[in-house]
Amino acid sequence: MHIPEHRKAIDKLDAQIVRLLNERTRHVLAIGAFKLKAGEEIYVPARERVVLNRICKLNQGPMTDEQLRAVYREVMSSALALEKTLTIAYLGPEATFTHQAAIRRFGSSLRYAAQKTIADVFTEVSKHRADYGVVPVENSTEGVVTHTLDMFVESDLKIVSQIVLRIQQCLMIPSGTARAQVKKLYAHPQSLAQCRAWIQNHLPRVEIVETSSNARSAELAAKEKNTAAIGGLLAAEKYKLRVLELDIQDNAANATRFLVLGRQGSPPTGKDRTSLMVSIADKVGALHHALAAFRRYRINMTKIESRPSKRKAWEYFFFIDCDGHLHDPKVAKAIAHLEQECSYVKVLGSYPNAE
Fold first, then answer.
1. Cis ω for the linkage preceding 204 (within 30 of 0)
2. What is the number of domains present in the chain?
3. pLDDT, mean of each 10-residue run, the chain (355 residues)
4. Contact 170, 232 (CB under 8 A)
5. Calpha distance 149→170 (Å, rounded)
6. Among candidate residues 219, 246, 273, the one where a domain is terminated
7. What CATH number corresponds to the domain at position 5?
8. Domain CATH for 274
């Protein structure tokens, strides 16, 4: 086939794709109408995972599974937007990694509302001003975001999904600026920590100015000559900066885990994670006896983190992640064991594990 023939074939396929996308959307809207009538959530992470896994199994290339998932993410996002005007609150400002993670989960067709603090994200969802919220909970090199954990003490919101985003830190500069001309570097403290060795090796003499966010760094650099900023690709795109260096983070495996907050739990998918918050009695061996439940029922505990309760001196809450769903028999038995051994047990949510 020559180029005109390939183009003619593409035109014919595009007509079929448009027809099939609209046919698919009509079915989605019909399902959405049933959900709304029954008072159920429109967004169902468990169903989303099933769809994405199925289309990847059907994939024979040349598109990669990741590329195919990105296409279907936007297909599902547009359908969600037609079903209901969904609002996603996230820790802002716009063009941060949290914003990028939210778009990765929900696509670009929904309404996004940037919030100043993690507490504001919880509030927007709790007060029904947003349908879901996205907040960071831990970074693979810098550890947990303690304020997110602390918010669960008083909140009734559930974790309905999680997003693990590979963090690609970039050095970005205004057009017309060369690296040799850079005299000032804007960066968020966490980005500085993640790129410390690279900065020392490549920009040892620049003035470093800490900012409130990666997006703010990009915004400031866009307004000044002889400056640079560290941040993500979304920030570079928004503020029209040129990416001079990609992946400048010291740890190539640098990733951040984000939580999606909702008001209702997620059904089992067969590959889930459950997050718990417990408080134990102040006595010898209390934590050991409590955690014995996971060994007894052969459940993989993937994380444990302690935080001061802020209610009483030397009282702590333990945040625990484990494999499985709260409706799985083994997990249900382990939770029942915890309730016998602990003074307080709260299930924060069961949700699909990240891809």
1. no
2. 4
3. 93 96 94 87 84 93 92 92 91 92 92 95 96 93 88 94 92 88 92 92 93 92 93 93 92 90 89 92 80 92 87 78 95 93 92 79
4. yes
5. 28
6. 246
7. 1.20.59.10
8. 3.30.70.260
